[in-house]
Amino acid sequence: xxxxxxxxxxxxxxxxxxxxxxxxxxxxxxxxxxxxxxxxxxxxxxxxxxxxxxxxxxxxxxxxxxxxxxxxxxxxxxxxxxxxxxxxxxxxxxxxxxxxxxxxxxxxxxxxxxxxxxxxxxxxxxxxxxxxxxxxxxxxxx
Length: 142
Ligand code: HEM
Description:
The chain has five helices and no strands. The protein is mainly alpha-helical. The chain has one domain (2-137): Up-down Bundle (Four Helix Bundle (Hemerythrin (Met), subunit A)). Helix 2 packs antiparallel against helix 3 and helix 4 runs antiparallel to helix 5. The longest helix has 36 residues, at 34-69. It is elongated, with a radius of gyration of 17 Å. Protoporphyrin IX containing FE is lined by residues 6, 9-10, 13, 16, 58-59, 62-63, 65-66, 69, 71, 79, 83, 129, 132-133, 136-137, 139. Protoporphyrin IX containing FE (HEM) is lined by residues 6, 9-10, 13, 16, 58-59, 62-63, 65-66, 69, 71, 79, 83, 129, 132-133, 136-137, 139.
């Protein structure tokens, strides 16, 4: 059973790897023409939605593993803090995308501002996923 849950958890972490790549994808948005920006933003928005569901899977499977893995209390605290921050970022990523989808092509300056917010939030999310992965792999680090 633990083995299978760990498999689901590792499978989920591959999919959540979407956030590792997102800053590179997000960085291309600002250079597109307004119509293309709307389509591009819709694609990222849909993937981010799936990413949010998968984060829930990570949380549930991870919660089960915690009870079996014998990790330290500081490890749990740091993982939870980073994970909550990642959840917040995934919500904040949706904001600028929604605005670009709703007002696509209207205000270039506003779209540029939203594109740069998207890049900032996705860069933070990417760093958080990397940090979580390091903590997961090196469980005895803290
Ligand atoms: C983006 C979020 C996460 C990613 C990418 C991730 C990734 C991983 C990976 C790849 C492993 C396997 C490491 C190994 O076997 O050496 C692992 C193990 C583990 N994860 Fe996560 N995880 C995430 C979130 C969480 C959360 C939120 C929790 C706790 C609530 C958690 C708890 C655990 C535990 C306890 C293990 C150790 C299992 C063991 O060694 O027996 N994970 N995680």
